[in-house]
Each structure stands twice: as structure tokens, then as C-alpha cells.
Design a protein that fits this description.
Pfam family, one (chains A, B): Aldedh
CATH architecture of the largest domain in chain A: 3-Layer(aba) Sandwich
Shape of chain A: globular
Helix content of chain A: 40-55%
Strand order of the largest sheet of chain A: 10-9-11-8-7-12-13
Structural class of chain A: alpha/beta
Largest interface: A-B, 60 and 59 residues
Radius of gyration of chain A: 24 Å
CATH topology of the largest domain in chain A: Aldehyde Dehydrogenase, Chain A, domain 1
Pathway (chains A, B): Amino-acid biosynthesis; L-proline biosynthesis; L-glutamate 5-semialdehyde from L-glutamate: step 2/2
Low-confidence stretches of chain A: none
Oligomer: homodimer
Main location (chains A, B): cytoplasm
Organism (chains A, B): Plantimonas leprariae
CATH superfamily of the largest domain in chain A: Aldehyde Dehydrogenase, Chain A, domain 1
GO molecular function (chains A, B): glutamate-5-semialdehyde dehydrogenase activity; NADP binding
Chain lengths: ~425, ~425
């Protein structure tokens, strides 16, 4: 047992050293080289589509024998279209502007010193994820673009699929003359490996990104001794104001809740202005019900819409990720803000209103990562923001918040040019 | 004992709740109100100068009886000039532009959604510091300007001075109609209070800023369960290139090392290009020696400058904070980069050269927070950068790096305006 522990520790320490060395080389690589690598990765994924699908079939067969759930199987499953999308995403990241070296700000001091603030890579990113094999490519590509080395630790259920995709990433790195260690996969399924990553591999990991369910994210937040881009749950709210256009409100609530119920930007709670309840509540709830959504309402909602199930306090703090919505009446925008500040996970909230003063109050009065006026909460997504992909949506307030794209995967430093200035 | 522990825990939990409530109100306060509070604080400090100096005299007397060192007494000591500087710094922060609400970026998506990224307060900042009483005012002012509530925990040695200054800050808040709990001081000297702060007071603290010596910072980094703006040591390097102007090199090295030896931006190691050793080494070291600096050199340096003390490996990793410098010969800019990447604390490094290619290589090839070309390392300071004060210099790479001014004390969110867009 001791030998096994030591072996995993040694293996992980070695991985950390290799990643750190690769990161130092990568920080100085040109945009041209990184983009060539990303295109070569996409080519390799397309060339290897059969091998990737065969590996995925093996993963699926194992999952089926283990009796895993249908939603799990769906996250795991690849087909020709999904593999093509992986290759497309790699090319999209290649086409983004290089964040590294970008001058974010520049100014001159009265003593003649010229100071610029320049984007630099973060260093080494550790990604711990579960069953989606495309995370291997997405995380690898975004980290590379930002000049970071990455250590990938995927779930054992998608091991064969991830390994096949990972092989394509390595081919792309080598083809472009970049260090092959710029993207490393943890070569053991031993769970102790994750613990070593969370401890930071002796200073070799600069930040950890967990991608997966609540229990994974909570473990990472509890145990990590290095910074974490935590994507906690998305307990998102839609507030329908008294000045909402009813047709728009119906469309936005239905899309926010039902377009896809399993994503973090899906609405979980609907708040309706008490002043609009008589006119707006029933049509919105009827449209949701018609879409197959279960409705859990507070006492006032049940009064007005008797087919609603009575909500309990637990409903206000539950991320259903399913066709269920909790509904409450509130006293105008102030009541909505109060409910949201109490129960929200500070991910994404939307207001539907034609009253621009109410919209401003909502957008400035709530401390969530994304606030929308007259738009669906399902736009909470790096691609929809124009970030060219994301590694997750951060609900913390430090460094990254909201969709984590290539810019959020960088740090910065200050470069000062003088002509011999000394400080008095 | 149990009662005492519970009492401190309850006291701190209450402090956390009050700070969180104040932070929510403060986030919505106008720039005008915040700046009025900062001016009123400055007025109060000037009006209370006698009381502040009397409190400081009591602290100094206690420190003298306890036999504390002269350097410690100097950090603790206030006089009329230092009190005037505290009031001036409060006014300076009041005159800075308000970072909260600033639109950092704005763009429109093809579907017509308009997205803006807007600066928001971080929330509640916990500041743990040692003997400098001016930190009370500096930290309180910078946090307020950034819309954050702050919980201050100063050292017991400066308790009376800090309490007198703290009283002035409260007067300013009240005069401007801001919540008095926006700036809170921990009302107990019990060391357990710091432990509660590092645990985050049940989610009430968003970030911890340690201001003090190495043992404090290390304790904070080890124990904190919330993000930390760590200001680790400043093991700063000056590299004198073969293409350096000798007169400039002498001035910059002497200023970097000796202007003030106890600040984190003071140079600790001098690297001289082997190709310039014959001409540049002796004049630079003679100027340092004349300034009272002890010189510890590697074998090559001792050969060329026999009055240097032989350096050991420990010298390359020591932040002397004293009139001592370690000196090594290196093989050009590549040798300098190699030495610095191995030993630096990634705080501040400078190159002296007339060769712009060497300067570019140095500024892009080293991963430190501040890199200077032909300027003194002692410019590593928020005031010198034009930030209007700083709460410290961060050596981490997440969120804040380098001088932590008001902008670095903010977060951001995304505000999206639509006209009824749903996601396909």
C-alpha cells in the first residue's frame, strides 16, 4: 500500500515538473505556432474519427454493463457529428486573437516612466472533469491558446474516448513543434492522483478547474490548496415585472426553463411581480405546463393557479436541472432583488420589463455573474458571449467570473521602461 | 475556556454579518457619498491629531517597556508629519476615479444582444496587519473607495494608535451618511479572532489581505479557506547587461539597493554580465560599499573584487531587507533570466542596458509581477504606478498581481441587454 501511494505521488510529482517546464517554454511560443498546433489537432481528430468512435463505443459498452443512467450515457456518447464539433471547436480556438502579450493598459508617469500592463499565461492549469470526453479537447485547446500547460484528469468512465482525443492533441503539438508536455493526461485512474493535484503538485499547479457535478466541485473546493475556478450550481431566476410585455415574458420564461433543462443557465425559479399576477401569471404557467414543466408555487401562486404544486422552502434553493420550476409572487423589482439576493447562487438572473428604470435597478442591484434584461438565461455561455468557447462558468468573484474563456485563463504583469530614473 | 472560545466565535460571526450587510448597502452608494466620507475622515484625522499622537505615545511606551527593536519602533511611531500624511492619503483616495460601475468592455453580438463587463465591489475584505498604524487608514480608505466593507485586525502593539485612527474613519462614514459598519475593527486581541477570519466567517469574507512579516503571511496562506492577496517577499534582482551605460548602472543599482533597504522593492541580488565584468563590476561594487553595503559575491566576483565576502547558496534565496547584496556574474541576458527564474520571488526585476533587444528579451522572458528597463526596482509601489495608494504588492498570479490598488479590489459582472432574444 505504501509503495502504491509513493508510486502515485512520484508519478504526479514528475507530471508537475514536466508541465512546469513545458509552461515556461510555451509562454514564449508565437501565436502562429499555437494556432498551427490547434489546426493540426483538428486535422488529427478528423483523421482519427473511426478510432475515436471505436474507443467511445468501448466506454459506452462498459457504462451500459455498469447500469449507468441515460443522462450519463448521453453526456458520454460521441457520434460523427459530435466528433466534427470537437474538431470545429479546436479550429475556432485557433482563430481567436492571442491573449498573451496583449497590452491591456498603458500610461506614462510624470517622471517619464512608461508603464504597460500586459497579459501573460497563468502557468499550469489542472482540469478535473467527469464524463464528457469533449472536455479533453476544449480544456486542452483553451489552455494552450492562453499559453498555459494543462494537466487533464478525466473520469474513468470516458477513459478510452478521452485517450483517443488526447492522442490527437499530442499529434498536433508535435506537428507544430511545441513541447508535447504542454498538454498532459494523468496516466492513472488511482483516485489519489486527484488529491495530489488539489495539493498543487509542490507548486507546479497554479489553478484548478473542476468540471462536473456538485460533489466533484465541492470536493475540489474543500480540499484544494491552490486557487480554484469554481463553477458551482446555477440557481438562475427570471423576474417578470409589471411592465413586461406578456408575449415576450412567455417566450423568455419558456426558453429560459425548457430549451435545455440540464445546463447551468437554465432558470430554476420564476418571480412574478404581484402587480402583474392577474394578467401575466396564468398565461406563463400554462405555457410552461404545456411544455411539460412541473410547477411548484408559493401560496399566492397556488391561489391564482390551482394546478400548481405547493412549494416548500427547499424549492427556493434547489437547482432542479429538470423540467420543474418554482414560482413566487414578489413586490416589484425590490421584492425580486430581495428574493434573489437571499436564494441565488449568483450565476445568472434575468428581468423581463419595458421599464428601463426597473431594468437598471435590477442590473445594478444584484450581485450575480450575469444579469440579463429581456433575454433568456440560456445565453449564459462563453460561446454565446463571443468568447470562442469556455472552460466553465465561474460563480466566484476573484479573477474570473462568468464564462471562463481564454482571457480569463491569463494573468498579467507590468513592464516599465525608463531612461535611468531613480526614486527620490 | 469553552465559553471564551464561543464568545470569540460569536463576536466574529456577528462582525461578519454586519460587514456583509454594510457591503450590500455600500455597493449601491454613489461616488459622491464615498468621496465625501473620505474627505470627512481626513478632516477628523487632522482635528484629532493630538489624541492620535497621545495614543501612539502610549503604544510606544508599552513597546519600549517590552524591549522591542528599533526598526519595530520606527514602524510604530507617528509624528505630526506622519499623521498629516495619513490625512493626505485619505484625500488622495477620495480624488481617485470611482472604479465601481466602470464599463471595462462593451460589445454587441450578431443576435443583437449588447453585453457589457462592469466593475463591481468584491464584497467584504479582511485585512490582517501588524504594527504600522497607517495601514488602518490606507486599507479602510481603499476598500471603501472600491465599494467593499472591510474588517480590520491590527497588531496589538499598535492597538491604541489604530483605535484612534479608526475612530476618525467611523466619524467620516457617519458624516457622509454611509453605514458605520462599512469599516469594522476586530474588538478583541484574542488570537483566535484571526483564525475565524481566515476561515471566512461563514462566507462573510471574500478575500484576505495580510500586511506584515513573513510569518504572518505564511500563516495566512497556510490557514486561509478564502482567497488571499498574498504579498510574499520581494527577492528583487538588478541585471547589468554588457550594453549598460556605466554611470546609469551605478546610480540604478545604488538606488535599487540602498534608497530604503527595508521595503519589498529593494534589490537583494545584483547580476552582472560576464562580458561587462572587467569594466562595470568594480565601480558598481565600490559605490555600494561606499554607501555602507556589505557585498557577498560568487567565486568570480570575489576574484575580481577581493573585498567581497564569499556568497553561499543561501544568499541567492535571502531577502536581506538590509544593507547587504549578493552578486553573481551571469552569461548575458539568458544567464540572468536563468538565475532569476530559479531564485526570484517573482516580485520585481530590472535590467540596465542600452540594447533594446536585450531589454525586450528580459521583459518578456521573466514571469515576475514587475519588470523594469533602466529604472530602479524601488519604483515597485502603487503610488509610483499612479494607483493612488496600495494595500500591498501581490506576488500571486490570480486576480491581482503587483501593486493592489482600488481597481484590484474590485470584481466585475456582465450585463446583457436584449429585446426578447431566446436561444435557439
Amino acid at each position: 500500500m505504501l509503495d502504491k501511494v509513493d508510486a502515485v505521488a512520484d508519478l504526479m510529482a514528475d507530471l508537475g515538473r514536466r508541465a512546469r517546464a513545458a509552461a515556461r517554454r510555451l509562454a514564449l511560443c508565437s501565436s502562429t505556432q499555437k494556432d498551427a498546433a490547434l489546426r493540426a489537432m483538428a486535422d488529427a481528430v478528423e483523421a482519427d474519427v473511426d478510432a475515436i468512435l471505436a474507443a467511445n463505443a468501448a466506454d459506452l459498452e462498459r457504462a451500459r454493463s455498469a447500469g449507468l443512467a441515460g443522462s450519463f450515457m448521453d453526456r458520454l456518447r460521441l457520434d460523427a457529428g459530435r466528433v466534427a464539433a470537437i474538431a470545429g471547436a479546436l479550429r475556432d480556438v485557433g482563430a481567436l486573437p492571442d491573449p498573451v502579450g496583449a497590452v491591456v493598459a498603458e500610461w506614462e508617469r510624470p517622471n517619464g516612466l512608461r508603464i504597460s500592463r500586459v497579459r501573460t499565461p497563468l502557468g499550469v492549469v489542472g482540469v478535473v472533469y467527469e464524463s464528457r470526453p469533449n472536455v479533453t479537447a476544449d480544456a486542452g485547446a483553451l489552455c494552450l491558446k492562453a499559453g498555459n500547460a494543462v494537466i487533464l484528469r478525466g473520469g474513468s468512465d470516458s477513459a478510452a474516448s478521452s485517450a483517443a482525443i488526447y492522442g490527437c492533441l499530442r499529434k498536433g503539438l508535435v506537428a507544430a513543434g511545441l513541447p508535447a508536455d504542454a498538454i498532459l493526461a494523468v496516466p492513472t485512474s488511482d483516485r489519489a492522483a486527484v488529491g495530489h493535484m488539489l495539493a498543487g503538485l509542490d507548486g507546479s499547479i497554479d489553478v484548478i478547474v473542476p468540471r462536473g457535478g456538485r460533489s466533484l466541485v465541492e470536493r475540489v473546493q474543500r480540499e484544494a490548496r491552490v486557487p480554484v475556478f469554481a463553477h458551482l450550481e446555477g440557481l438562475c431566476h427570471v423576474y417578470v415585472d409589471r411592465a413586461a410585455d406578456l408575449g415576450m415574458a412567455v417566450r423568455l420564461v419558456v426558453n429560459s426553463k425548457l430549451r435545455r433543462t440540464g445546463v447551468c443557465g437554465a432558470a430554476e425559479t420564476l418571480l412574478v411581480d404581484r402587480a402583474a399576477a392577474a394578467t401575466h401569471l396564468a398565461p406563463i404557467l400554462a405555457a410552461l405546463a404545456e411544455g411539460g414543466c412541473e410547477i411548484r408555487g408559493d401560496a399566492d401562486v397556488v391561489d391564482l393557479y390551482p394546478s400548481a404544486v405547493p412549494a416548500t422552502e427547499a424549492d427556493w434553493r434547489t437547482e432542479y436541472l429538470d423540467a420543474i420550476i418554482s414560482v413566487a409572487l414578489v413586490d416589484g423589482v425590490e421584492g425580486a432583488i430581495e428574493h434573489i439576493e437571499r436564494w441565488s447562487s449568483h450565476h445568472t438572473e434575468a428581468i423581463v420589463t419595458e421599464d428601463s428604470a426597473a431594468a437598471v435597478r435590477f442590473l445594478t442591484g444584484i450581485d450575480s455573474a450575469i444579469l440579463l434584461h429581456n433575454a433568456s438565461t440560456q445565453f449564459a455561455d462563453g460561446g454565446e458571449f463571443g468568447f470562442g468557447g469556455e472552460i466553465g462558468i465561474a460563480t466566484g468573484k476573484m479573477h474570473a467570473r462568468g464564462p471562463v474563456g481564454v482571457e480569463q485563463l491569463t494573468s498579467f504583469n507590468y513592464r516599465v521602461s525608463g531612461s535611468g530614473q531613480t526614486r527620490p
